[in-house]
């Protein structure tokens, strides 16, 4: 099942994608289930929004692909390297990544995102995927120069617009299958790797994170990026595609641009 969050006639709703249409849901399926209103809306008539706005947090994993750790000159971590993004960083498909004036180097990082569906605390890895509502695509946008100069990652990873998510949540996606993640900058492929190249699996990450802090419904877990990250400048288009999940597209712009 593919679930989208969308705007139509000045109203924000959730719907199940069905053959070019959206079956409108009565509420947020994370909390209200899948009861429908009986209404159907054409996909072409709506504006897709970020499929989830985390009420609590976005948990991210650094250096979860060996080739990405190597390209930045870093060692592979022995355990998942966790950090957070604020929920104010989230934008949806088609929204603009705003390049902050504080940074001279902003990078794209295409990633698989897992959306938590149940309260998770001290979850064993063998049961961790039971706590996932579904999967979508993320872009862990990073001010690379500030990441290096600050000595920690909160500002570099947390600017407004630095967490594009979308286009929808797929509840039946299998993160253990060899689906390929591909990122394109202005149509040129810059990242391409199977999700099976992750060092720590989605289940490993959820188990590790939930041993430290409680994961709540609507929390998003970004699972790391493969090699090929690079800078974006105003006007660049970034497409992150994952087989089975679709394509997330965003355009970079300078502050103040429309």
UniProtKB/TrEMBL annotation:
Keywords: Hydrolase, Metal-binding. The keyword Manganese does not apply. The keyword Disulfide bond does not apply. SUPFAM superfamilies: FAH. Residues 1-51 form the Rv2993c-like N-terminal domain. This is Fumarylacetoacetate hydrolase family protein. It comes from Microbacterium invictum. InterPro entries: Fumarylacetoacetase-like_C, Fumarylacetoacetase_C_sf, Rv2993c-like_N. It holds the Pfam family FAA_hydrolase. Residues 57-250 form the Fumarylacetoacetase-like C-terminal domain. Transmembrane segments: none annotated. Coiled coil: none annotated. One of its GO terms (molecular function) is hydrolase activity. Gene3D superfamilies: FAH (2.30.30.370), Fumarylacetoacetase-like, C-terminal domain (3.90.850.10).
